[in-house]
Amino acid sequence: MNPKISLFLPVYNEEENLDRMNETIFQAMEKLGHSFEVIYVDDGSSDHSLELLKGFAAADRRVRVISFRRNYGQTAAMAAGIAAARGEVLIPMDADLQNDPSDIERLLAKLDEGYDVVSGWRKDRKDNFLTRTLPSRMANWLISRIGGVPLHDYGCSLKAYRRDVLKGVNLYGEMHRFIPIYAAWAGALVTEIPVNHHPRFAGKSKYGLSRTVKVIFDLITIKFMASYLTKPIYVFGWAGILAFTVSFLSGLLAFLMKFLSWPKHADFIQTPLPVLSMIMLVLGIQLILMGLIAEMLVRTYHESQDKRIYTVKARFNFENKEEQEDDGTDRINGISKNFKNLPAPFVFG
Length: 349
Description:
Blueprint: E1 5-11, H1 15-32, E2 36-42, H2 49-59, E3 63-67, H3 74-84, E4 89-92, H4 104-111, E5 117-121, H5 129-147, E6 159-162, H6 179-185, E7 190-194, H7 210-228, H8 233-260, H9 273-304, H10 321-324
Parallel strand pairs: 1-2, 1-4, 2-3, 5-7
Antiparallel strand pairs: 4-6, 5-6
């Protein structure tokens, strides 16, 4: 039978931490009294991590292991864990012992209050302030402002999701940290709680400042998808109008300078304004055409795969199962209906 909880962990060269990590996970999970599974996703480790994981799987059938042929990154490992999970509640976490499995009980308790996503907040973070904590705070502030889901710690892997809020979520780049935003788009209730954060027990961090740039690029993608996924002509159209405006003003100023000597006299060959006017005119035409192409691609994307541009929270008096599930988002038995006494800052949908 499918377990109640699916816990999944990306693993990359963590052989020094895995024995202790696996032990603390089982101690915490067995106290909960729920059925569970632990999925380790080996992300192409070059040390002995995979051998240790195979040993865990051989010793306990509740442990399942996925091994990648090479290192694909944390987002790919998270996507594999989500795809393999069979539980009603999905909980990702890191395998470096900095997350505390004992916090899972509090995550589940918060879900029982009626939320669909509970995010961990490393309030007392045990990392270098200048290279890890400060850039993280800046990134979290920016993500919260642009994504519309105010969380203190998007980078904390320890989160709890109801299974149905991850339905249809496809991850690319560094998108795993934006899953709460995807869930909020689908009408999920999102909140966060402080969780423990421990200093790294062994090994070294796989993350650096270079990830900040990647996160910014992915954040631009998130903003575009949130605002213009079904109407890309709006962003390309406004950019085209801006280009046309600059073209018109440049051409007008060049005309005034040549024929009316205002603000001073200058022939067309004495000023770059005519060239700028033509360049911006061509650019504006290209942007409008790109917007039209994007509109056709969006329509092809949705219509060829029978994708809906909306999500349904629940249906009533729909006796036909095909009618119930025609958009794959029937959530009558999934997302909790307990909407009472929810703290306003973290309620979405």
